[in-house]
User: Fold this.
Amino acid sequence: KAGVTQTPRYLIKTRGQQVTLSCSPISGHRSVSWYQQTPGQGLQFLFEYFSETQRNKGNFPGRFSGRQFSNSRSEMNVSTLELGDSALYLCASSLTAPGTDTQYFGPGTRLTVL
Amino acid sequence: GNSVTQMEGPVTLSEEAFLTINCTYTATGYPSLFWYVQYPGEGLQLLLKATKADDKGSNKGFEATYRKETTSFHLEKGSVQVSDSAVYFCALRRTGGGADGLTFGKGTHLIIQP
Assistant:
């Protein structure tokens, strides 16, 4: 069974631009979560979606948003990019409802903001 | 709130040495506990997990026991290999209704020398 896939793998943007990242969960998985990984702050939870609804949200500004489609694929969007948004963005999927199942991670999208 | 504390390293060992990476946590309720591993340039891979007190998770020679009385989940391996060189993350997640995302420690960089 294919794992979690994320596209693109690498992205370079400039300050003020916006960006959309995509995540395809493991087949049959219905929950998708997003995390930001930086050297300074480590791994931080962004948000989680289940059945096209945001179920949980971490402590990030409103510039960070996401959505989930009926096929469980998810996108996250960051508007008005700042230098500090440079990070590895990881997507994770799990089989069932949030909080009840193990999360499996994709390889991540490396975003560089210049 | 929830938090996870682990040694950051780097931890340098010789091949075939015994490994212990300490992890302690603070959480409300009864969280599930995880160890994830990240190899260079890759996403996170689930190494093992435990969902209740006194459970022992194991995989690929690694073990960790959920100790509620000491709020710990230390990772151990009897004989490490060069291929075990990676960053190891301890994480927790509250379960049930209202559960949020994974809370991670800062990660422990492990270097195994031949």
About this structure: Chain A touches chain B at residues 4, 6, 33, 35, 42-48, 56, 58, 90, 92, 98-100, 102-108 (CB under 8 Å).
